[in-house]
Amino acid sequence: MQRRLVIAILVACAVLPIAFQALGQRQVYWLFVISEFYVFAIVAISLDLLMGRSGQISLGQSGFVALGAYTAAILNQRFNVDLPLGMLAGAATAAVASLVLGFPATRLRGHYLGIVTLGFGIAIDQIALKWDALTGGDQGIHLHRPALFGVDAGTPVRMYYVALVALVVAVLLVRGLTQTRIGRAFAAIKDSEVAAAAMGVPVARTKVLAFIVSAFLAGAAGGIYAFLAGFVAPEDFGIESSLLFFAMVVIGGMGSIPGAIGGAVVVDAVKNAAATVSGLSLALLGGMIVLVVLFFPGGLKGLLRTRRIRRERRPAPKGVVRQDA
Amino acid sequence: MTQFLLQIALAGLAQGSLFALTALGLVMIYNASSVVNFAHGAMGMAATYVAYVLIARFEVPFALAFAAALVAAFVLGAVVQAVFLARLRNAPLLSQVVVTLGLFMLLEGLMGIAFGYNPRPMRESIAIAPVILGDLVLRPQDVLQLALLLILGVALAAFFAATKVGLGMRAITENTYAARLMGIPVGRLLAIAWGTGVALSAVAAVLAAPTTSVTPNMMDTIVVYGFVAAIVGGFGSMAGALVGGLILGVVVNLIDAFLAPELAMSIVFGLLLLVLYVRPDGLFGRAQVQKV
Hints:
Chain A has about 325 residues and is mainly α. Chain A has helices spanning about 5-20, 25-55, 60-80, 85-105, 110-130, 130-135, 155-180, 180-190, 195-200, 205-230, 240-250, 255-275, 280-295, 300-315; strands at about 140, 145-150, 150, 230.
């Protein structure tokens, strides 16, 4: 993506709270909606790392988000642990869970991981409801006002910036990772496990690693979400939200960070716009997934790219010598 | 106590036959096209609405509505294969699986828009009073489920052993490319496999409907247990799926009776992980050698 466009978007995001002051009372709501979107985008990026880069399916990504959120919330409620540490603890818990889950699943062929993660997502939901001594059951957990290194972060504007910075850090981390040896190993496995193994890539270990990194990011997003919302309850993390994350990645175009973020924009918009009719957003997103796979395998990202290529391939006007000709 | 256990085992086998029917369809589709069909339950659910509308609006007898639902399911499965999956024949497997997930969301959403999420009651499949046998209570519905599973199991075994279509499907499982070279009409057989597989899911869905009521997500739990049954059975073995489903039904009923019903699926998945640690190819599966 062009550097200038990225900088423009970042600047726009950074000054958004100032523009929102014009909204008066409603700015608190809109700031929350957009901060929440940043957190969702982190989860979309984490899932894209797994699906788009290493070719595995997770249908329980919200299970990892839930683990991160509950870990942060419980630590905050009982030991007054603050945002950075709570977020890291949430991420670590999710990563450990993914290790237990990923080890048997990734040794297997096909899409077992999809099924096992689906069960994991359902199980986390059930346990959160049932184990009310720890999780508060369907009453959920209220968190203390968040602080960052002793500075109060409890205002909507400050939490907005926390979420924005977290998203930027997540993007940089994943971008960095894909350019390392490990990132190339992910890509090799996605193209062909057998060929990757022949090139000396430890297939099972690399697949589990992709799963762990993905869960770590999703858990971190969950930790931030807990502090952002100030409240955690089981209904935020059902199987439906796992499907939403899945839709973000597919619609955006697998294997691309801008794609995952763009997919998150589309899905979040559809979800909020179609909330009044039950079933409508599910049908729309399902239909979009089918259309994307059949006709636009690159998703949003692919659509933009083909347009750019077409533009570049237009014959040069007369009298102009193309540089690359 | 033994009588109580027997009663649980009986209920478990009856419920397990629904898991087994779902798993049989999943495995049939998987064997033919290597695709794990995540829309499996939703497609069975959609067909159940056909039976529901026929019974509730037009007062068609249950058996006839059941048959209509099966025909609808077969057509749905065959059309999905021919329209969506056939196009993706050369696409990565991941794309094919993703399409089935999209179809799952689409079908549940569409049924939700058309009929709403309020559960709609379905008439009992057979209106006979429960039979008391010694100390045991036999529900006719349970007997019907088990009997249908066994009949369909035998029929499928005969189908794969003796008919030309069944043999062709086994050839496709073995090696699709070679099957095509041998003159087997792969496209048509894939459509038949998908149609039959989805019809099996519809059998489970229509039989489940009097207990679960008809809702867009009526099959969600059953199909997840169907996945588990298929994995336990080695994902590829029809007999394994059948036995796996029955065992799972008993396990789920034991959990409901002695542990926590709200945690049934969590416990089942914990057990599944344990099974996979010990036997990565399921209890009945053979180790797979990956072909290049």
